[in-house]
Amino acid sequence: MKCFSMFSKDKSESKKRESRSAPELRKHSKSDDSAPSPTTRSMPSPRSISELYKEREHNLRVFSLEELKEATNGFNRMLKIGEGGFGSVYKGTIRPLNGRGDPILVAVKRLNRHGLQGHKEWLAEIQFLGIVSHPNLVKLLGYCSVDSERGIQRLLVYEFMANRSLEDHLFNTTSTLPWRTRLEIMLGAAQGLAYLHDGLEVKVIYRDFKSSNVLLNESFRPKLSDFGLAREGPTGDRTHVSTAVVGTYGYAAPEYVETGHLTIQSDIWTFGVVLYEILTGRRTVERNRPTSEQKLLDWVKQFPADSNRFGMIMDPRLRGNYPLSVAQKVGKLANSCLNKNAKERPTMSQVVESLKQVIQESEGASSSVHKSAGTSSTRKGGAGGRRSN
């Protein structure tokens, strides 16, 4: 999907850095915020992302370009595992820092060489992923920065995610994700977002939650990736962060698109969109469908979650292997996330609890089905036995 953006260029472009030096990270939200409002002196100000990063920057490994060329066999096209507006991602292997042990599988993101915006997003990735630590956020191992006469080189090195993205599986016509796996993926993603919203000194607005940014490891554990558009949340008396509108069409919250006011609730809206993708197996926009079905959120409104018609929107590839009553509850949760009044949307912590309950109910419903099937089978066997006597 194409991204929409209306970035204005920063006139004060930072000075070029040498390849082995740690990047200076700007406070993105500070430059985007509207004029600061007075705050109470007795309340200590939370540290910024930049301040938190300075404490932990030593945890990131600084790679040379030669190391990453070797890791990816010269950025061989056969090792390319992803591509987007930012550039390309390659599968690679690196040697442990101490030189001992087996090579480590990694994903190397190589940003396009042109444009200030790519550099900004590279910095944002480093500053946010450099301070977070959560099982549902992808781990950044290090970076590479080279400025030369041939141009700039900006690269990022992540842990390798063997099962690609949620998008790859959800919209794949050759296979499908089981119902239980879908719920567990959404629970893990919700836990990652809840951590960003409430687990750090400063609130982080992810801003780019979508199925292609939910990566899956070998055990299908979800991890949020791509923090290039993330922003620090509002502090003090501020209610929002004012920014240029960026993101992926079909996911962004309506109030953000209309005003440029970014809040934690913007992430809640996008989570609701992906919940409906999970339920239906459809992308948020599909131009090859009839007009009334092209926009996912408009289409699902015709099948309310509290009606018997709701089952008509469920992904047919699931073949009915899910409890409809539980699916309806997921639909209602999605609707609450998609409330037009941002203040009435649940918090991500509340979403996490709701999904935990949904998974429990889904397990209970499945157990009941298996028990009744087993009882029916026993009765049939008993009757047969009596007939044989």
From TrEMBL:
Primary location class: membrane
InterPro entries linked: Kinase-like_dom_sf, Plant_Ser_Thr_Prot_Kinase, Prot_kinase_dom, Protein_kinase_ATP_BS, Ser-Thr/Tyr_kinase_cat_dom, Ser/Thr_kinase_AS
Protein name: Protein kinase domain-containing protein
Domain Protein kinase: 75-359
Binding of ATP, residues: 109
Compositional bias of kind Low complexity: 34-47
Biological source species: Hibiscus sabdariffa (roselle)
Bias-annotated ranges (Polar residues): 359-379
Compartments, as annotated in UniProt: Cell membrane
Compositional bias of kind Basic and acidic residues: 8-33
Region Disordered, annotated ranges: 1-47, 359-389
Pfam families per UniProt: PK_Tyr_Ser-Thr
Keywords: ATP-binding, Cell membrane, Kinase, Membrane, Nucleotide-binding, Serine/threonine-protein kinase, Transferase
Record-linked SUPFAM superfamilies: Protein kinase-like (PK-like) (SSF56112)
Keyword Endoplasmic reticulum: no
Superkingdom, natural source: Eukaryota
Family named by the database record: Belongs to the protein kinase superfamily.
CDD domains referenced in this protein's UniProt entry, alphabetically: STKc_IRAK (cd14066)
